[in-house]
């Protein structure tokens, strides 16, 4: 039978609802802002058959009385640690949703002896969107597709908390720097994200898992931020397997993501221009006698996606041969689309040609990933967007995502230095560039790889909402030959095509 009791520490009260069997793991469930323990009912019903479940009402939410002031995330983490000690819950499996994930991470980082495993469901706050306006927008986008069950639970919980207390807790949520806490966590960690979660984009969930020394990420298809309510059986299965020590989801190992490429003084920048163009000149010479790609590029592991290699302006497929060889050596079939010439046509027209060429060939079982350099990445994104209509061109062609290398997703302001219209079409003010920039819905299916300094794209290739990876190599062209780039591209392909 369920038992309900209170834990008190000064003026702060946490209501505990305990269910389950005495043997097995101790699951401690932490709700997000505005919610209460009833939000977990479906999940708790599944978990209580394998262990003890402690579903909490945090101070001021659910049945817990409201204190005078909200706690910071660090203070909430300490309060939770006090509860674990007082209740004799040793080596807990902490399960936090949304802001509950922030509290769980704080407890795990500060008191590793109390936490056996950590589960972060829809962890907030994405540091690239740490503003009240942005979080409100994401929340509204997410609830627009919620089912009636979730809406009813949410309205009941929000009514109990009240708008004043809810608003008071927004500041601690936004001020918390989870990315600074995560590297201190020692517990095995599983990050769970709903596939359509607008609050927690895919790249941020992957970064959370990467920032934890022992982190993995799993994705629940077709669900949003409320995934543990609408898909409690699937989420419970992931949690139980994780608690048992199974390797759930996939391991993520990515470097910390920089927000901008480095800037250099004029003399150093000039030196990189010279070296970059010297490399480009050498690669252009490879065009001589390179009529067809190597025959072995057509062979690969059918369980891995085909790679469609797209060069940039004035680049032949042979310009990307070092990258193509590396991808093929890793087991991917590498596809080259002929008939693009020096790639001087408009992005839309080139994308249409690419679409026709790919449509003539049966979609491989594992699908396709576009790997494009510079303009090639923009062509790939154009196909993901669907161009000027609403058809799912990428889906029909089996395109799982795009890895762009040194791609000017925001345009290239230095294109104004050139008179060639095909290069000036990359200016930030160009109609197609503006359209692609506003099409943020597909960015989660893009990995942007760039170097420490790009003389052609000085503002960097960071794409908001994508997975951004900086490799320790400078240049716009030299990056293509670097082993670090090859590894980053391969990891990007795996991230885009591995099911959670």
UniProtKB/TrEMBL annotation:
Which InterPro entries does UniProt cross-reference here?
Answer: AB_hydrolase_1, AB_hydrolase_fold, Carboxylesterase_BioH
Keywords of the record, alphabetical order, are: Hydrolase
Keyword presence, rRNA processing? no
Alphabetized GO MF terms: hydrolase activity
**Domain of life of the source:** Bacteria
Instruction: Show the stretches that span the lipid bilayer.
Output: none
Give the matching SUPFAM superfamilies.
Answer: alpha/beta-Hydrolases
Q: Domain AB hydrolase-1, which positions?
A: 27-237
Database matches in PANTHER family: HYDROLASE ALPHA/BETA FOLD FAMILY (PTHR43194), PIMELOYL-[ACYL-CARRIER PROTEIN] METHYL ESTER ESTERASE (PTHR43194:SF5)
Q: What is this protein called?
A: Alpha/beta fold hydrolase
Q: What is the lineage of its organism?
A: Bacteria, Bacillati, Actinomycetota, Actinomycetes, Micrococcales
